[in-house]
Structure formats: C-alpha cells, structure tokens
C-alpha cells in the first residue's frame, strides 16, 4: 500500500511512504517530510546541503502482535563544521538499528524479567537485548556519585558449581554495592583496592568480614587506618562445624554399644546447632535430655553461648575478662576439638575485640547474597560474569 500523505506522530520528521504486511511482520517505509529541518548529528546545527540519501532497516515496537520493521530514508549532510555527517533523528540514536522507544521498552522489562523472556516480548535476538540492557546498566551506574566509603562489608557467594566464588564489597553506610569480582583470593580482591585508590583506602575506618585470611591481609595492606571486624554469624558457624559436629560424631562413635542413645546423638545435629531460643517447644525436652546425658555435648553447647557473649561486651575491659574466661574454660574442657578451635581463634582476637568499637556485621550483605541467588535462578544462570556483576551493582545503587 502506498500513501504519500500519511504523517504520524510516532516518527517525528518523517511520513509513511509505503506500508506492507509480510510473513515476518509489518514493513513501513518512511521518508523525510518537506518541512523537517536537516540537523547535523555531530554539532547539531542546521544544514542546507544533502550529500546523499540511503535506506536503513530499523526495528520498532511490535504492534498488534506483529513485528514492525521500518525502512527509513536517511540523509547524509554536508556540514560546514563536521564535514559529511548523517542527519540527527530525534527518535533514533546514531548508527542504531532499533528505535529509542523499543530500546526503552527493552530496558524497562530487563529490570524485571530475564533476558530470554524479554526476547520473546520484543522479538529481538538475545545478544541485542543483552547489549541494550548492558548499555542501560552502564548508564545507570555512570550517573551515580563517586563513592566515598568509610565502612565496608566484604563477603563471598557461590558463582558457579564446583567451588567457584565471587566477592562482593558493600558500603556499610549507604548499602551501595561498590564492587563485585570473580574469586576470593588476595589477587582477586586486590583489584577492588586498586580501583578505590590510596586516598579513599586511607579513609576506611572499619571492614566487616568472615575469618577470611585473604580479605584480612589485603585490608591491612591497602587500608592502614582500618580495623577488621569479624562477623559473629561466621564464627559461630565455624564453631558448629569444627567443634559441635566433631564432638557429636566422636560421642556417637563412643556409644556403639548403646544403639538407642547413639541414634539420638547422631540425629541431633540441627538441634545442637540451633540457639536455644529458636528450638521449637516440642523439641526443648529432647535437647535438655540429650545435654543432661552427655557431658561433652553439654560443654560445647554452653561454650557456644559463651562465645556469642564476646560480641555483646559493653567495653574493651569487659571483653578482655570474658575472652580470658572463655579461653580458660576451653583449655580446661579436655575436649580436643574445642581446644584446637580456641587456639586457632587466638590469632583473630583483634577482629573480635573491634566489634566493641565498631558494631558491624555482614548481615546486610547476606541479604543481598540471597537476592543474588534469586537473580541467578530467574535467569537460569549467566554466561557472562561481567554482565551479571553489572546487574548486581545496578540493583543496589545505595541510599541517597
């Protein structure tokens, strides 16, 4: 169909010259209107001379379930300042093969849906959608102010199966994800501190983390004024694995002659790892009976509660008294795994004491890590880690 007088507001400066329905969608030919000004795409000044005209095929928003293809007659202008340049079109970016309207539509839905789903909605190729989304994410991050963190939180999350991890760094005050990188070694996280630079590193006062030696050493190397703060949750989780689990297995092996009691001890793992306040009411008698019948399990269970109190000390002096008392009880317990854990914990005392001055934890980042897992499940994983990391940073731009 041909109509030389059809002028629509969708494509400013152009009119419909031809309209055709095909198997692969709707094809619309556009030509410049006689009144449309010719503007240089370089200097954005008005031009009067046309060097040549050419056709470009462009995708636009689907209409009534049909893909829309535009064949646009564009002009290359002779600009006094820029030389030969393509004319500026308000609804089309330079060199673009899709309209700004379609790009905005794709970007909007990429905030809520996986790339594969947006492909079905828009009819665009996966790589095209990902490119649009990447440009949107990079633009969003570029608009953020320069980060000036004072306190940091560092943690890791599983990137792929097979013990492959990534590290996340969070501004503890603004909740902005500053950096995400693959790996958890010193070499992997050193990139963050190099990006932060010596001046901003010197401003860091405290960093919350688990007992990851790589994190600790890099903070000491790059942030001379920072105190490392060890997270209670990770220490208690380590205590559960290395002490409570070990004692439970040892006691189960010792009770080979008492099969009913051995079965109770073997099945009590989650009961022993829980805080007493979180134990269901119907399980409380079972826990009390188990602890009363086994002295070793009673000891390590009580020592776990005492260990948590180190993070509740009101002053450094209170902490020192509680720390010395805990170490002495661990030494006098004659439980090998507990003594071994206490000996290992001695070298981390500064990071535990720092909690008195800096009441920080990695709980903020644990919540973000859970959101990251949801993002991975929604997208059925990401082939491109850098693109995934952009998604994470854009999802947590921080509080104003």
Automatic annotation (TrEMBL):
**Pfam families according to UniProt:** DDE_Tnp_ISL3, HTH_Tnp_ISL3, Zn_ribbon_ISL3
Q: Which domain of life is it from?
A: Bacteria
Q: Specify the Transposase IS204/IS1001/IS1096/IS1165 helix-turn-helix domain's residue ranges.
A: 87-135
Residues of the Transposase IS204/IS1001/IS1096/IS1165 DDE domain = 152-392
**Residues in domain Transposase IS204/IS1001/IS1096/IS1165 zinc-finger?**
37-82
Protein name, entry field: Transposase family protein
What species was this sequence derived from?
Answer: Collimonas pratensis
């Amino acid at each position: 169909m041909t109509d030389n007088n059809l002028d629509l507001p969708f494509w400013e400066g152009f009119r419909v010259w031809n309209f055709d329905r095909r198997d692969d969608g709707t094809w619309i030919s556009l030509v410049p209107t006689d009144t449309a000004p010719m503007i240089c795409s370089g200097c954005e000044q008005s031009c009067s001379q046309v060097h040549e005209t050419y056709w470009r095929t462009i995708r636009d928003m689907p209409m009534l379930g049909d893909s829309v293809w535009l064949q646009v007659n564009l002009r290359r202008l002779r600009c006094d300042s820029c030389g030969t340049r393509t004319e500026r079109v308000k609804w089309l970016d330079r060199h673009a093969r899709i309209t700004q309207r379609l790009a905005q539509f794709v970007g909007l839905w990429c905030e809520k849906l996986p790339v594969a789903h947006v492909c079905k909605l828009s009819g665009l190729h996966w790589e095209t959608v990902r490119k649009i989304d990447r440009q949107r994410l990079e633009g969003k991050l570029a608009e953020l102010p320069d980060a000036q963190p004072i306190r940091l939180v560092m943690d890791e999350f599983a990137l792929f199966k097979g013990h492959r991890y990534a590290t996340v760094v969070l501004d503890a005050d603004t909740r902005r994800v500053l950096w995400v990188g693959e790996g958890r070694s010193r070499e992997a996280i050193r990139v963050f501190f190099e990006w932060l630079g010596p001046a901003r590193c010197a401003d860091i006062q405290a960093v919350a983390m688990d007992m990851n030696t790589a994190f600790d050493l890099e903070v000491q190397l790059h942030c001379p004024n920072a105190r490392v703060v060890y997270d209670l949750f990770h220490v208690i989780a380590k205590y559960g694995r290395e002490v409570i689990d070990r004692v439970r297995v040892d006691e189960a092996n010792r009770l080979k002659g008492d099969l009913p009691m051995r079965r109770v001890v073997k099945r009590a793992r989650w009961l022993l790892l829980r805080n007493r306040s979180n134990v269901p009411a119907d399980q409380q008698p079972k826990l009390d009976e188990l602890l009363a019948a086994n002295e070793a399990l009673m000891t390590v269970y009580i020592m776990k509660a005492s260990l948590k109190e180190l993070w509740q000390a009101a002053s450094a002096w209170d902490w020192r008294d509680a720390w010395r008392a805990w170490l002495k009880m661990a030494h006098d317990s004659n439980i090998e795994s507990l003594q071994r854990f206490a000996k290992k914990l001695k070298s981390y005392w500064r990071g535990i004491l720092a909690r008195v001055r800096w009441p920080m934890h990695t709980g903020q980042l644990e919540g973000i890590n859970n959101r990251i897992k949801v993002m991975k499940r929604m997208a059925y994983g990401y082939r491109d880690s850098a693109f995934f990391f952009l998604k994470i940073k854009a999802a947590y731009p921080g509080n104003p």
